[in-house]
Design goal:
The protein contains no helices and ten strands. By secondary structure, the chain is an all-beta fold. Strands 1, 2, 3, 4, 5, 6, 7, 8, 9 and 10 form a ten-stranded antiparallel beta sheet that branches.
Length: 123
């Protein structure tokens, strides 16, 4: 069973957010990715959608989460399953937020500006 210690997790920046990769194909997790997004107060993730579903769980703080046309307040312990192709946006509350995310490896992110990428934390 491969072990990866906390000090060895790769860390990435995404528009002011910090993304810590816990598991990805490049490090032996061939069927799943797992990462944490830490958002400072008021910071958000860009509007986007994916070619596979993803699952968010708030582990600290709170967010406003827009899923399609609906908006929800999420607090610690709340989870959201984001269906394939559904646009979503999240904005951290006044205390910031930490969110754990899992998705399939190679999951593409499609932004509103037309750009697309496979983030390095899911490779």
């Amino acid at each position: 069973m491969p072990i990866e210690h906390a000090a060895d997790h790769p860390v990435f920046e995404l528009g002011g957010a910090t993304v810590t990769s816990f598991a990805a194909p490049s490090r032996g997790a061939h069927e799943v990715t797992l990462y944490r997004v830490d958002l400072p107060p008021g910071q958000g993730l860009p509007a986007h959608h994916h070619d596979h579903l993803d699952v968010f769980t708030v582990v600290a703080g709170g967010t406003t989460f827009q899923l399609g046309e609906e908006s929800f307040e999420l607090t610690e312990g709340d989870s959201v399953v984001v269906p394939i192709g559904v646009r979503h946006v999240l904005q951290a509350g006044p205390a910031g937020a930490s969110i754990i995310v899992t998705m399939l490896p190679g999951n593409k992110m499609f932004r509103d500006d037309g750009s697309e990428l496979v983030p390095p934390w899911v490779q």
